[in-house]
## 1
Amino acid sequence: MIMTDNFLPVQADGYLRSWLLLGPFPGDPRQLLKAPLIAEAGALPAAGKEESGKRWTAVESQASVFDFLPLTPFWKSHTNCCAYAHVYVHAVRPVSAVAALGSDDGAAVWINGRSLFSLDASRPCTPDENRIPVSLIAGWNRILVKIQQYGGGWQFCLRLLTRRGLPVPGLSYSLDRPRLEGHPRGKSRRPPLAMSVCPAETTGETVFLNLTLYNLTSRLITGGKIHIEQEGRPAAIVSCPDLPGGELRQIPIQLPLRYWARAFVVPLRFILEGGEKPAFSISAEASPSLAAAFGAALSTCTGGLPADLRELMGDLHRALGWVENFENSPVFARPAERLTRALVGGNLPAISRQGRELGAAVRAEGGKMRGQSVSLIGHAHIDMNWLWRWPETVQVCQATF
């Protein structure tokens, strides 16, 4: 999970590719579109936040069209259901714009709590098919989309355009709920840089993070120092290079893995003190997903445990390694989260209790799986347009089938 006090620019084509998702909600898509499954007008999502029995999850699409089927394999249902998508968009000044929407199937749209569009339909996703007049305020704007799914493909895409049909310039976005009191409301107060932090990989006892800086101005910005803190205590200091106008730069950061495990409870904070005049300061926070935190905690917090608990933790680590996206599983997520917090806190009785609870859940699911069977079905064909001669036909058939 990544939380930013700042924001990243919307790409040049205007499409919003990163969203917080909540779903799926099964049922009759026509009724689901009308029913308020969450507090739609007042939604203030954050990654990992639970709402209506589900958890907001950050998902990024490489393409302009967001395709639920490949991007949400951890969801159990992709038919006769609906889902919500949310993003925070920042504008430096008030903007009269057009929200250009495409959806498969129907969709509803809220901006800053106002219901602006609702269409029950069974249709393919056509970019910019619906053009919805919107008014963006100076500062942060909340965009919520509900997308229906009857069956087949399930997609949507949305971008903000000017009245002339061009992408609105100067927009930025954030997935997690911004700290609204710390964000600029007008052009004159806008920080010259945007910053975000993403995990790259974990190797041994080290976590590798990518800190991304983006120069929001057209001029060179003098670098400074990036202070990394946890619970107000310094973890590391890295140098920030000078950054030419309009350029993006990634700074690799290495930290002991114990900081990343701890960040599940207390996020790491990254503070950049700019080296130019007038001085400026921007910051971002980062914490791991449940799966990453669980692995980091097992790697760094089990050394002092009794032998039987260490063995149990190893068994759980191996068992959940076979479960894809276990952090989204209603069976494993809650006990795994409680166990991770107990490990980070060093609470031995809680570690024992939560470890055995998670072990019981793993065994129960294993018992269900033993009663299932898996069929592996293959397909092959031979293109007869090649006009094989008889010996070759026999040989190819034997080799193929």
## 2
Amino acid sequence: MHSQPVHAPDGLGSAHPTDAIVSIIGVLFLFLTPGLSAQGRGANPDDVGSIDGIIAAFYDVISVEAGEKPDWTRDSTLYLPGVRFVPLRRTPEGTRVANVISHAQFAASSEGFLAQGFVEREIHRVTQRFGDLAHVFSTYEYRRTLDTPVLGRGINSIHLFFDGDRWWITGATWMDESPEQPIPEEYLPQ
């Protein structure tokens, strides 16, 4: 039996029950299928069209004034689905720790320190590229506001993938500088 779709009075589509089920399944497929959900999130072409653009957006999103919140939606468009962040640190006892976290975990754990204001900016970059693969060693400094003293520096190790249309961050690892581990000269501005 073939049924004709009945258009809803507001012109938004079919009112046939099976069409609604198909639409719901389509939406769920789009948002639950790895890769497709991120591609449909509407990334700003300026953010993802070049390595310079994606690195600039990476720093822009995390830099906020006191009381502001980062645009986590914009931030999430920079990353390949399933991205992992790995902040490195040393405990007071000297144990080396790599904490593997998701984008959602990073966003949730960042709210406290970002609430007071946080500005992170790139001060030097070393980029290596082979085809659709790129690695960026991005030296950063951070402070509470643009007019306050630098609180620290470190290096972001950012892994990138070009899918033919746009760049994706596939992972990021970072480590703050310390007296025991100063940033080498080749990763500092000349």
## 3
Amino acid sequence: LLAACLVPHTDAALFTDAASNYGGIIEDATGTAPENSGILSVRLTATGSATVGLVWQGRAYPFKARFGADSKLHLERAKRVAEGELAATLVLDFTLDGGTLSMTGTLAELPAGSSTPTLTAPFTLSGAVADPLLSQLLTPGLQTAFIDPPASMATPEAGADPAAPIPGDGFSIITITSRRSTRIAGQLPDTEPYSAGSPLRGTAYSLRSSLCKARRQTPGGQLLGTADVSNTAALPEPSAAQEPRGIPGSVARLLAALRWHKRQNAAAPAYPAGFDNRLLLDTHPYPSGRRLVPIFPNPASINNARLTVRDGNVGTAFNVPFTLNILGLVRLDAAQNPNRVSLRVDPRRAKFSGKFTHPVTQARTTFRGSFEAAILPTPGEGRGGFIALDSIDRAQSRSGSVNITVP
């Protein structure tokens, strides 16, 4: 079922100044059910034609329609449901405000044969042009960020343990294009990979990443939030040692508070009780190249770096010294490496990965991470994570952290 209110003779002049890309986050009115959330994007042309993209509860719904002379748009689409779920219709209503380059409206779910919605989610979409100052300061290239292990929210989903920690370090690698759109990819603290992207609207990006395969009708999760562009002019001016690394004295970075949730799922390999958490994202420029940026003060010295593994059911944390040169080449001393750590570093993409023998399970365990560049005299750092799966009791599977620091 697809329906749209179309006005064939819309006055195109109404939309000339309002033509833009609009986008924003959409959540249910109560905000207590994180699975009832998603993202909306609208590409509005000067003729009033609209290409609408809705991602709701992990499923995508594309539309093409036209706004009416009253600056309103009504859309309907049959909801995609899994086996056993009740049929429903998604209803979207938009109102355009060309003066502020914004859209407001609601999404409603109507059960089959009923006109009373079981769920209503208001939304506001921004179509503001990119801030010219921040666009200038938001230098194209890479930025990186670490994601700290989260603390559970005070009102978790039913079945989730609010006190259950989720150890492990996540990371984000952000690519800023020449048009100032962004693509973010990385790994969450439980080692779940994710990716998201958005054009810059005003001073912010709208980000969402589905954490389940759409073709599998199984409970999953998502990462949802808005990333604001911030001017980091308070950073110190680069020293002579920093200049070759390409770090300008004043650049912009992304600051985001993201909601990360997974629904209860007894079949999940880890954290089957589900959770609902908040994550913070604070990015920093990473001047990529074929050579590793000076993460550490003495890149030519022996054993100038240390890898630390903790949590993930390893028991006592353990350290492994190693030598890392500016090309990203790693040298490990077998005599100081009882857990048989292997490590590869990719300076160009700000990544590292490797394996170690888990001291408890004896399984070869994979880890991945990213780097933040040094701002001398403060050294840089590498952080990432791994997961130790318990095939007998999935509730005992735990993620852990891998850190690369100055010894």
## 4
Amino acid sequence: MNYLFVFLGGGLGSICRFGIAQWIANYKFQFPWATITANVLACLVLGILVGLNLKGKISSPMGFFLMVGFCGGFSTFSTFTNETFQLMATAEWGKAFANIFISLAVCLLSLFAESNWRGRDPIFPKILALCYFKWIIESS
């Protein structure tokens, strides 16, 4: 039965990732913002879920559906790797290393911050998301 939960969550996460990619494609950025956005959001969601799971507030089936399925389908390491490789192949080294740094640093920070949330209003991800999207729009 856990396979079914992972399957359904993964499909939903993939559809959400595709939606973000389509939405961000309208802006015609020369940087892989759609992948970074999906990965950061997936890490924020996973961080919240890890925090809730540590408190015993997520059932095992819901954990498989959301943590393994949805977050696994929503985040995309293979696309991140391919986009970084393409930037390197075209000698866009600054963008390639920025992609690596931003992806790793922001995703790790997001997961850490949210997994350590202990019942407070999670204002940090809201502020981070607003700053992140404002920075994306202004840097294009």
